[in-house]
Amino acid sequence: MDIGSNIRAIRKRKKITIAQICEETGLSQGFLSQVETNKTSPSIATLESIAQALRVPLAYLLLKKEERMQIVRKDERKVTTSGAEKLRVEHLSSTKNMRMMLVELPPGASTGEAPHAHEGEEVHVVIQGRIHAQQGEDWAEFDAGDSFSWNACTPHIVKNIGEELAIVLISVYTEADAADRGL
């Protein structure tokens, strides 16, 4: 864990000197310097006082880099195709357990020839167009602004039943081990 580098980066971003932190926390400058260079590991109580001096939650100091805010700019999105109909999929962002994507379905296109199932839970928001969604024996038609969700382990299919391009925002949640297996 790189707590010291986190502390230094926050302190510098907020233009706070080591002396100011030491004055507020009662720590020595030498000790704080060793903390920032990861040469010593402070106690939780010491970290809490440093966090208070930096005006950040203690938990923020403990985050790993991959747990911090991840940014994907619109022009940097990964774009793939899916299925036989080569649906366009824009990957918006993801965490260890969740991913979000925009899926474009041309008129008449669907997520497959037959319903499919996989691990996880999904939430869908129709951004544009008109779609038909079916999970098992349940089905409904949706217009722009409508949303629905389901457990993806039950076979499901989504089809564009309108005359224009349908765009659906999909969030998929999977347990970490399932996500690691690429399900």
Automatic annotation (TrEMBL):
PROSITE patterns: HTH_CROC1 (PS50943). InterPro entries: Cro/C1-type_HTH (IPR001387), Cupin_2 (IPR013096), Lambda_DNA-bd_dom_sf (IPR010982), RmlC-like_jellyroll (IPR014710), RmlC_Cupin_sf (IPR011051), TransReg_Diox_bact_type (IPR050807). Keywords: DNA-binding. Residues 7-61 form the HTH cro/C1-type domain. It comes from the Bacteria. Pfam families: Cupin_2, HTH_3. PANTHER family: HTH-TYPE TRANSCRIPTIONAL REGULATOR (PTHR46797), TRANSCRIPTIONAL REGULATOR (PTHR46797:SF2). This is XRE family transcriptional regulator.
